[in-house]
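Thread title: Can someone regenerate the structure for this chain?

I was given the following input by a collaborator and told the matching structure tokens would be attached. They weren't. Posting the sequence so someone can regenerate them.
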Amino acid sequence: MRIIPIEFIMQRIVPIIVIFLISCTAAKQDPLMNQPVGVLESAQEPQKPSQLNNVPEEKLATPNVKNGVIFAKTDFQGVLEKTYVKLLFEDLVNAENKFHLYIGDKEGPQPFLWDVNPVKPGYFFIELPAGTYRISSISIPVGSTQATERMDVTIEVFPEKVTYIGTLQMIGVKERIRLGGVPVIRPGFEYAANIINEKDEAIHTFKQRYPKYFKQIFIKLMELKLHRNEV
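Best answer:
Regenerated them for you:
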């Protein structure tokens, strides 16, 4: 029987094994790990929705051909009456167009959770790129966190036009605890929603706020597809 010297094994066999292990490790390595840390962080950061505010009167005098103005009244009752809310507007065609509308009074008794400039309760007058939007969620503060519930309200924004879209009435029935999702236990609330046509009051309010606007005001009410959130 031939005996292979240990020196031969060390010189010939071991290097082959080492090269094989290195190649296997390189094949399993995630290619993203070779990218700079800054690239990974920027790729993971979601784009934050822009904040909506009431449109200044001077902007109505020089309308943007790509934008339109909508105005409406909000009527929050029950659980929603005592607090301030955040609505999320999403463009149904251009997914990058997302906007937050904060409604509340920073001078009210309850500390404001978000570092933003909200519009006061009642009517809002906002400018958006023309298109079809969905109000997809409503959020309210609960302690140091927030409760968010799904909505489904469709809105049309017409270029170079001012459109009244109705009164969004929402009655917060009761607070509750939701199970599942992230985090597993999270606050929530039940609500009932409705769209009301108060065009006479609304147009009168608009003309008081924007007395120099003499063009036609169009009417296209919001479409409510979810009258109650799931229990």
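Residues 6-44 form one domain.
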